[in-house]
Amino acid sequence: MTRLLALLLALGAPQPGPTQAGAITDTITGTVTGPDGQALVGAIAQATSVTTQVTRRQSTDGRGRFTILFPESEGQHQLIVRYFGMAPARLTVVRQLHEVRLPTSVRMDLAALPNPIDSILSSRHSLRLSATQAARLRGIAVSDAHMLQALEQARSVLTAYQWARLSDGLGTAESRSPASPVASVQEAAQQDAAPARPAPNAQGAAQQQTAPTPRTWAVYTGLSNVYDTNLDHSQPGLEAYGVLVGLGGWYRYRSSGTTVAAQYDGVFRNYTGTTIWNRPGHDASLSINHRMGPHWAVGAAAEALINGSAEDRVLRNEYSVQPQLEYRFNRSNRLLLYGEYLLKRYPSPLASQNAVDPRAGVRFRQLLGAGRTWGVGGRYDYNRADTTRYRFKGWAVTGDVASPLWAGARVSSSVRYRVRRYTSRLVELGTTKVLRRDDDWVATITWGQMLARSWEVVLSYQYETYQSNDSRREFLDHSVGLTFNRWW
Question: CA torsion, points 383, 385, 388, 393, in degrees to nearest 10?
Fold first, then answer.
């Protein structure tokens, strides 16, 4: 009786369906990496059979891998991979002879997305972001150097469903069913057990699923109130209050690993107790950067400053060209080598100080979690002035650190120590004359807070002390500024 019951149970057991192991014919596997060679988690890989238009999709796992199973041998598939902030990658996967497993790898490049956080927040209602998520997103800082880390931080704030909708483009038919994460072939087989639903227009849908159109430019206006204890950097010291009106903007374009950026900042000054400094200043720059594989990048930058200086409190014009070579050890650590050819032009009657100042330097930067960064650098320069009195050799070391505080708030600080050794300018020390030597310390700290989405308030403080073996050139300076910016 026991044997008869076992036989009846065996005959009545359900038979394996056509989508279970043994019936799978084509298996597309691969790994998705970003421009720095690191695995991308949560990228959507979608494969469409060229012959049947059957579509399968999966999200990459913690190591950037995906596995897509097809129940029949289709032979040729169109594969498209999407990741918010990256340009969609498209390729054709062809089955060779009796090959069952179709391995592939996909490397994605950054898209023209100047500020991914603004793009996400602009879709907050479609994504159904919570107030906490929106606040955390506003606290993520974005820049060219931190773009990949900003994307990773944004992905950690959103749910897998929200990130998939974002990468799909928020509006297409297939984005209503985001791909689910896959960690193994067994999980993929279970998810593919349901009958496949052919897309009504798979190729058209693939082209329509793009990320929200990003802004490639921005304009700002600003108003600052400044108090300076030594505006002209002299030993007596000129104490002054100032009102500054700023106007500027930037433009950025990215394509196939190449980034072109232009920026302009203008300021109109009005200080008390002086008329010399009440003149407009202008700062315009243009840069280009090209990625050469996962680790190397080359670039160049040009800058022009009118009635100002990048380092000194001096009313002069500066024109510079800077070639750059960057090596990225990984997503978080990078080393930059650069040279600079700097022209300094002074107004009359200070034209004798006109100089050519070639420089060479190195910077190291590390990107930490949650938008925190720190960096150090060093530089050597030789100021070849028109007259020997103003010729000197110098070097400088710098350090900086930045970190978000709470929603929309960020604090940053920097320090610089610089030494100048004049080659022919003598000063008297007692009964002897020696070559003049100057050194100065500059330390700054800045706190910024976003107000709503377009307003920003910035509070800054700078301390500078200048020492020299010519005691007539020593001075001390404190400067405090409060700025309100409006982004358009």
Answer: 0
Paired tokens of 346: 């002074």
For residue 352 the two structure tokens come to 């004798």
pLDDT above 70: residue 213: no
CB-based contacts of 312, cutoff 8 Å, min separation 6? 233
Q: Are 323 and 300 in contact (CB under 8 A)?
A: yes
The domains of the chain, with CATH numbers, are: 22-194+201-208 (2.60.40.1120), 217-487 (2.40.160.10)
Q: From CA 230, how far away is CA 236, in angstroms rounded?
A: 8
Contacts (Cβ under 8 Å, ≥6 apart) of 19:
71, 189, 192, 193
105-131 residue pLDDT tens: 888 888 876 678 888 888 888 888 888
Q: 310 and 285 in contact (C-beta within 8 Å)?
A: no
Predicted TM-score (pTM) of the model is 0.62
Q: Considering the chain, what percentage of its residues have pLDDT values greater than 70? A: 81
Mean local confidence (pLDDT), 83-112: 78
- Decide: residue 343, CB within 10 A, 0-12 exposed, 13-18 middle, 19+ buried: middle
290-316 pLDDT, tens digit each: 988 888 999 999 999 999 888 888 889
Listed residue (204, 34, 40) closest to 111, CA to CA: 34
What is the C-alpha to C-alpha distance for residues 73 and 224, in angstroms, rounded to an integer?
67
Q: What would the 3-class secondary structure string for 422-458 be?
A: EEEEEEEECCEEEEEEEEEEEEEEEEEEEECCCEEEE
Q: Residue with structure tokens 């169109």?
A: 78
Distance between CA atoms of residues 146 and 171, nearest Å: 28
Bridge partners for 367 per DSSP: 373
What are the backbone dihedrals phi and psi of residue 326, each rounded to the nearest 5 degrees, phi first? -120, 140
Lookup result for tokens 């010519």:
470
Number of H helices, E strands in the chain: 8, 21
Count Cα neighbours of 57 within 13 Å in the Cβ-side half-sphere: 25
CA angle 37, 401, 328 (to 5 degrees): 20
